[in-house]
C-alpha cells in the first residue's frame, strides 16, 4: 500500500530540521570581512599593511624589536640605528655605545652614548653624573628637577626640612636644615597650636576653628584637606603620627582623638577619617603623647579649678587596638622630692614627655600655683620605668633651668627646653620684661652635662632694646636642635657635639653662623610673637 504524500506543513518542518542538523554538523558559513579603503583583510581583521608592525607589507609579517613599519617595510625607529640586522639604542646599549660595536668595559655603563662608571645602587645617571633621585635637590624625583633654594629633597619631593608655626601671626614658615635659610611666611589659619608632618604633608591643629588642616610641605600656604576636631572649644595641644593613624590630644576637652588615613585624598591630602576617641577624665588637661610599644604616656597637667587633683600624673593608654584606645591607669608624680626653694608649695605639673629605650622621661615645670605660677623649684625630669611604673626625679639645676617645658632625644642624649622664670608686662601686650634660667639643658645617663642660655646679658629687657627670649618647643634634625621663642618669635639653632652645645644661630657667639632666625616677626599691635610649635619634616 502506498504512503500518502506529506502536506505543506510537514514538508516545511522536514526542511527546518534538516537545516538545523546541517548547521550543527558543518558550522555556519563564515561572514565575509569588509575593510575600508586603504586596509586589507588579514584573517578576520583589517590591517594597514603600510604601517602595521604586525602586518608590514603583508599579512603576518612582524617587525623586529626597535623597528617600525614605514611604507610597508620594517625600518629602525628614530634614534635606534641598525647594527647588523638589529636596531639598537646607541645612547644606552653598553655593547654598542655611541656607535655599532663600541662596547663599554665590564665595570661601566652606557649613558648618553658615552661609556661611564656605573652608579652605586639606589642612584641613577643624570646629566653625566650619578644622582639619588630620592634626596638630590638638583635631581629630585627625576633628572633635572631642581628644588627651590630653601628646600631639600625628601623621598623624591621638594620640601622644607623644618616648619614653625606663628600663633599670633597665623602663619607657617619653612626652614632649610644646614643652611638655616627661611622660605616666605605663608598665612595659614588663625590659631595654629600644634604641628606634625607625614608623607609630604604638614598637619596643623587650629584651636580657633577646631580643625586639623593639611598643607603640602613644599607649599604651606594652601589648605589641601581639613578634618573636624569635634568640640568647638578645642585646645589641640599635640599631634602624633603613627601610620596609618594620627592622634590628636585636646587639653581642654581631655580627649585623645584617633584619625585613620584612607586616602589618597583629592588635592594631595592624606584622606583622614576619625575612627576612635577616648576621654582621659575631667580636669586632667593632657599635654603631649609619648609612645613606647603599644602604650601612650600622656602627662596630665591638671586644672586650677580642681586644685590640680586630677593632674600631676602621667596617664597610660593602651593602643594595641588603635581604633579603640583604652585608658589603663595613671602614674602619680606627687611623691617626688621637687626640691622646693622655700620648703613650701610646689607641684610637678608635667608638660612634655619622650620615650627612649631607657624609659619615659617627663618634663616637670615645678611651679607654685599659689604664687602666679612662678617656679618654686628647679626644672626637673621624671624618669618612669615602664616595667613597674616606678618614678625617680632628675634635678636639672635651678641656675640653668626653671620651668622645664619640652624634652627630645638627640642620639644618646636628652635635650630639655626650659621656659625659665619670666615676668610679663600684662598692661603692655603681655611682653616679657625679664626672664631668667631659660634655655637648654643636655642630659646623659640621667644627669645634666651641659647648658645653653637663650638670653644671656639681656637683663635690661625691652627697655634696653633687648628682645628677651622665652624657650618653647623643640625639633631635632640630625644633631641640630631647633628651639622656638614664645616671646619674640625667633628660632634658635644649637648643635649637640661631643657632649656639649654649640650655637649655630642664636646669640652670635664666635662659633655661631649668625643671629637667631626671625621666624615670626613681632606684630607691633601685639608686641609679643609666639612661635608656638616647630616640627622636623621626615
Main sheet record: 5 strands, antiparallel
Name the structural class.
mainly beta
Helical fraction equals under 10%
Number of helices: 1
Shape: elongated
Q: Whole-number radius of gyration?
A: 36 Å
Tell me how many strands there are: 46
Q: Work out the strand percent.
A: 35-45%
Would you tell me the overall average pLDDT?
87
Q: Are there runs of 5+ residues with pLDDT below 50, and where? A: 1-29
Tell me the span between the first and last alpha carbons. Answer: 105 Å
Written description of the protein model:
This protein is mainly β. It is built from 1 helix and 46 strands. The strands form 15 sheets. Strands 13, 14, 15, 16 and 46 form a 5-stranded antiparallel beta sheet that branches.
